[in-house]
C-alpha cells in the first residue's frame, strides 16, 4: 500500500516568516487536509477534535507539541489511516504516559496495559540512568534539546480508532548516553519477557551480522500496544556507512586526522526555535 507524506512545517515556516502574527499553524494545515478526506467511510472530525483538544491543553510557557509531518494511506478503504507525527517535549516516563493517552483523552480497554508495558520498556532502557522507582517516573533521561516523537493514527468514522505510538530517541540519552551494547542487552531482555527468548542475546548477534560496526547504530525505538496486535515495536538504525562517517542522528567527519562531531538535525532544530521565538515575540508585541 502506498502512502503520501508531507511536512506542513514548510508551509508554517513560510507564513510565519511573512507575517508578524501568522494565522496558519501546522495543525490547522493538517486538520484542513484531513477533513477533505471525509467521505463515504465516515468523518475524521472526532479524532481531529480529540487531538486538537490535547494540543490546545498546554499552558503558555509550556513546550507545546507541534505537528511536523502527516502520512495518508493512498487506498480507497474504510481502513485507510491518517497519521500525524508530533514533536513533543517528552523526556520523562510521566510525560510519556501523558502523551500516549493524549493527556488522558484516550481511554479504552488497552490503556492500562499500554501504560504498564511502556513503564516496563522505559525501565529496561533507562534503568542505568535512574535510581529509585519514583525517580524513573520524573527524571529526564534525554539530553537538552532532545525529545520523543508521537505518532497519532486516525481512521474515518470510528470515534474509538485513535491510536498512538511513541518514538524514543535512544541515541540522545543524557549522562553519557547509552552504548549500542547496552541497548542490545536491554532489548534482548525485553523480548525475552514478552515470550521471545530467541532474541535474548540473539538480537545483538543478528545486528552484528548485519552491520560491520554496531556503535552508533540505534537511533529510535518505537512502541505501541493493542490487545489485537499485542506489543508492536520498531527499531530504527543509522549504521556506519563507510570509514570516517558514522550516522547516529548526526554524523562524524574526519578532518585533518581529527574527528569532529556534527549533528545533521541541529540546523533544523535551530530553525524551528528561531521561528517560534519570532512568532512569540510578534504575538507579545501585538498585545502591547
TrEMBL record:
Keywords attached to this entry: Transferase
GO molecular function: transferase activity, transferring alkyl or aryl (other than methyl) groups
Annotated GO biological process: alkaloid metabolic process
UniProt similarity note: Belongs to the tryptophan dimethylallyltransferase family.
Protein name: Tryptophan dimethylallyltransferase-domain-containing protein
Species assigned in the record: Apiosordaria backusii
Lineage, opening ranks: Eukaryota, Fungi, Dikarya, Ascomycota, Pezizomycotina
